[in-house]
Amino acid sequence: MEWLWGSLIGVGATLLGTVVGWFLSKPKNKNIKIILNTPSKLSPQMMFSDSGSDKKRHLTGISLYMDLVFYNPSDNVKLMRNIRTEFFDDKKTLLFSVDIKNLENTTTIFPGINLPKEIDAINIAPHVGDLYKCSVALFREDLEKKDLIAGVFIVFDDENNKAIKHKIPLPDFKGVKPYQD
Question: Residues of 4-42 as b/e, b for ≥16 C-beta within 10 angstroms?
Fold first, then answer.
């Protein structure tokens, strides 16, 4: 009779070990992490006005430069597409959305003039981080809302067309003056 109990305990332990091993080795399906590699930098773009009496430079645009690392902690290849930056006010209302440009992937429009392209869909291998030097440019109606910005998110669509948001530290948009002498 003792051999029967020993056999049952052995079979039970084997089944328990199999189930626990299956759960421990189950593929991890975690979301992509976005890491801001260096603090984002604001670069205001100014232009002199044409009127003779006004010698001030006017703000025509703001560029936000970022070094982003897209890291995939899961065991599966992950897809990122429609990568954009969304700007929100203090009530969490979307003010505007701007596509992110890849500074390392440019197109030449005239000799010596290169424009950055938007980031296309990215496939990120498991346990790999990809560094992208990016920029976001704000012009016209976006500049009118710059003082209302209270939050900035990097947003992308994953392989299931689900929007994934990552908050990034807010640069000082309110410190950019619309005029300079």
Answer: eeeeeeeeeeeeeeeeeeeeeeeeeeeebebeeeeebee
Distance CA 61, CA 55 (A): 18
Predicted confidence (pLDDT) per residue in 33-84, tens digit: 998 887 778 887 777 666 555 567 777 888 888 899 999 998 889 999 999 9
23 alpha-carbon distance from chain centroid = 31
* pLDDT tens track for 143-166: 888 888 888 999 999 989 999 999
Nearest to residue 69, comparing CAs of 153, 134, 147?
A: 134
Those residues whose C-beta lies under 8 Å from the C-beta of residue 46, and which sit 6 or more positions away, are 57, 58, 59, 60, 180
